[in-house]
Amino acid sequence: MFGAIAGDVIGSVYERNNVKHKAFALFSEGSRFTDDSVLTLAVARALLSGEPPGRAMRELHGRYPQAGFGPTFRAWIDAGEGAPAPKSASNGAAMRIAPVAWAFDTLAEVLAAAERFTVPTHDHPEGVKGAQATAAAVFLARRGESKTTIRQHIEQAFGYDLSVPLAVLRPDYAFDLSCAGTVPHAIRAFLEAEDFEDAVRNAISIGGDSDTLACIAGAIAEAHWGGVPAPIAARVWAVLDAPLRTLAQRFCAAYAVPLALPLTDGESPPPSAG
Length: 274
Hints:
Layout: H1 2-11, H2 35-49, H3 53-63, H4 71-79, H5 98-103, H6 107-118, H7 125-142, H8 147-158, H9 166-169, H10 183-191, H11 196-205, H12 210-225, H13 230-239, H14 242-254
């Protein structure tokens, strides 16, 4: 779950300034959390409290309205509680779904919860599929399944083609907010990676919706490699405010998510990573 936030923060400065290589700085003065992190933690909050996911998302949007929410999500917010769910096939549910994969003990439960946490804002088969595929990949990685097993399951269960190497995809890949144009490539970024940092670098290096690609890849990589490396986690931690830190800590403690912190407020993070 914290891997998703790390991917978002690292990718935040590259969403509108794409890079097509892996030799970029992980952090800069512009690094920030975006709606990807806010909504990931809204899902975490709803899982902890049992409140409806839509209510948790509305509440955290109200606290962080400038986090970069998309127009469809903002229209749903503006329509008020009880508004019809948008028929969105975009990647906005997939980017936030990682906590679901840590909160349940079976894949069937994870898939059912992924759908439940998706439909308030992405009531479209492709939106649900993208969120379920992401949650399944995180869950299988968390359970220690191999990359080969994860790839086979995603391809067979969801019909995504994970065979295209990033080197082939990278030159012509353009900004794409759809699940179909995001989720398979984020998973491929994980599959080609040697470690957590490499997965995030892979995801950002293809361009496009960099923070969301890195958010999804980071979520899977965290589960596969047993956490976010401490120097990276500390830099991400420093970007979050106290309420978001508290939510992250509570969720990680409740669901045994590895967290290479926590630093207490007032402590200094380790030296810069990257």
